[in-house]
Design brief:
single chain; five-stranded parallel beta sheet
Length: 465
């Protein structure tokens, strides 16, 4: 019988970080992962490979169309998609191998297989892979469930993994589809839609709502819609998809009240669902909610004693860094009695071009709550570094409490927004005011000066507006 202080089920960002932190704190730790490569969806078929393709496709477009104004003329630019995909795979392999190295360094035992709870303090691991093997019984004083999520499905959409698929398949198309239909205008749909549009596909995005990027600041979402349309993406909003099927080698997508759309491939990207099936939750008295999530308290404790859950299987945004923060906080609760995640300071980033990033409350949420707030906005066209880069589209919006000046939210659309949002996240974590941002020295010329100017604009004091 194998026995540990802690067993983590799932080696995604939440799971492997929790396992490593627990080992640092002196626990005997094991981690169970059914995939041969560690890192979960994020590293294997999510965040990392999609960002590799976004970077490569953006450089392709820059070389083909965007360098003339810089005085760089390239006469012939060709797409080598196999090389681009090979680079993407190499990036993934390097990072997943790195996680395996971290497990070894920190003495985290690894089990490859499917874990299922089997009563209190016990789980059974069924070995994965073609070799199989007899189930392994493992005892654990504590268990953390960090099994992540899977692509959400839609009634009527017949996924075949070839013509009609999810983000996993869209990361590895052998050639750019002539016409790609993306169902869903969230992070995943817009990012992968952008990749294939840059590489030559006609891309049509169908969104059920009357806007793109649900949950993000609506003003910035409207800016993004205009810019993405300008780049060549087609959008049909308020489009309720009722069916998607393959007929005679072509995909047919049907929507309420509209003519069917015929295309080469369909990407279903309407969100993700928790991976909580077949975990044996019933053996310890855990009952998922209506959305399949595991209920937890603020210490990540489930209804079962000494069983915890973090990441995509619990409430909150399905973000890798949120899962990482929860993994650390959960383990520190277990070992030290203390651990905390500030959910108001968790940023979100859409890696389109330009990038879109957000942290804290949106202006829509503040209006709905009747909050008394002030806003400051600064456009990148007034920023010297943005002009030098030749990327002046976009803006920074700072929202602050009208009475205390405490930062409530920061929203950015523009060059390198995903990096710029880190300063705002730290500021909100430390309960900074807009004045704190405005009074802090920012190097010149940098894009970060736009954040300072937006903070100044909260009181109508922007210098370069």
């Amino acid at each position: 019988m194998h026995a540990y202080d802690l067993v983590v089920i799932g080696a995604g960002p939440g799971g492997y970080v929790a396992a490593i932190r627990a080992a640092q704190l002196g626990l005997r730790v094991a981690c169970v992962e059914r995939e041969p490569a560690l890192g979960g969806t994020c590293l294997r078929v999510g965040c990392i490979p999609s960002k590799a393709l976004l970077e490569s496709s953006e450089r392709f477009v820059a070389a083909r169309d965007g360098l003339a104004e810089h005085g760089v003329r390239i006469e012939s630019v060709k797409l080598d998609l196999p090389a681009m995909l090979k680079r993407k795979d190499a990036v993934v392999a390097g990072l997943t191998g790195g996680v395996a190295g971290l497990f070894k360094k920190n003495n985290v035992a690894r089990y490859e297989g499917h874990a299922r709870l089997d009563g209190r303090n016990r789980l059974v691991v069924t070995p994965a892979g073609p070799q199989g093997g007899a189930p392994i019984a493992v005892m654990a004083e504590r268990i953390i469930i960090a099994t992540g999520s899977k692509p959400a499905t839609l009634p009527g959409v017949e996924i075949d993994g070839e013509r009609i698929g999810t983000s996993t398949e869209a990361l590895s198309y052998a050639e750019p589809p002539e016409h790609l239909v993306v169902i869903g205008a969230g992070y995943i749909g817009l990012e992968l839609g952008s990749v294939w549009q840059r590489l030559g596909s006609r891309v049509t995005v169908l969104e059920y709502l009357d806007r793109i990027l649900p949950g993000m600041d609506s003003e910035l979402a409207l800016d993004a819609l205009k810019l993405l349309r300008k780049q060549g993406l087609e959008f049909h909003l308020s489009a309720k998809v009722t069916r998607a099927r393959v007929s005679k080698g072509r995909c047919i997508v049907e929507c309420d009240g509209a003519d069917p759309v015929e295309c080469d491939r369909v990407l279903l990207a309407i969100g993700r669902a928790p991976n909580t099936d077949n975990l044996g939750l019933e053996t310890v008295g855990i009952e998922p909610d209506a959305r399949g999530r595991i209920p937890v308290n603020d210490r990540f404790e489930t209804a079962a004693e000494n069983v915890y859950a973090i990441g995509d299987v619990i409430r909150g945004p399905m973000l890798a860094h949120k899962a990482e923060d929860e993994g650390v906080a959960c383990v520190e609760h277990i070992v030290t009695g203390h651990g905390h995640v500030n959910y108001d300071a968790i940023p979100g980033v859409v890696y389109t071009h330009p990038e879109i990033a957000s942290v804290g409350r949106t202006e829509d949420e503040l209006k709905q709550a009747g909050a008394d707030y002030r806003r400051g906005v600064f456009h990148f066209r007034g920023n010297g570094r943005a002009r030098a880069l030749g990327e002046v589209e976009g803006r920074v919006k700072v929202l602050a409490d009208a009475r205390t000046d405490r930062l409530l939210g920061v929203h950015i659309i523009g060059p390198r927004a995903g990096d710029l949002i880190a300063e705002a996240a730290v500021a909100i974590e430390f309960a900074a005011s807009a004045e704190d941002l405005a009074r802090s020295s920012h190097a010149h010329p940098t894009l970060a000066e736009a954040l300072k100017e937006a903070a100044l604009a909260v009181e109508g004091r922007a210098i370069h507006a």
